[in-house]
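ARCHIVE CARD
Drawer: 12
Card no.: 0347
Subject: one protein chain, sequence and derived structure
Cross-reference: see card 0346
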Amino acid sequence: MTDIRPKLSKDNPYWISQHRYYELRHFCLQYHEWKKAYNELDGYSTGSIIRPFKTTNSDITGEVVVKRERYSSFMRIVEESALKTDKVIGPYIFEAVTDGLTYEKLKARKDIPCCREVFYKMYRKFFYILNNARD
């Protein structure tokens, strides 16, 4: 996936622990799963949407609303953290963290408008912002 070092010096302004970084990284990689689940819970689906609920509660509509809000909240946190990171680089950071892309792959596909060093500085900043948003 990305070739960023998970360990940073505690002197780095964007320091978070190695294990927290991995937790947040895997959180972001679930983005497309949340989006798919959110779209499938549209209120118009038949049959298949009810099966995932293991409940004796008869309020399936309420459960759909709760699940959609949960997925929406997770997606919004990732999206907003990317935008707060940087207005120009943020969309590239978003793609990197949700698709597991490296700077090199982004540069080849999208011609990202910064050097590798700046990109990974913003990448670390993103995870720092996300860490604060997830607390």
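Annotation on reverse: The chain has one domain: 18-43+61-134. Residues 18-43+61-134 form one domain.
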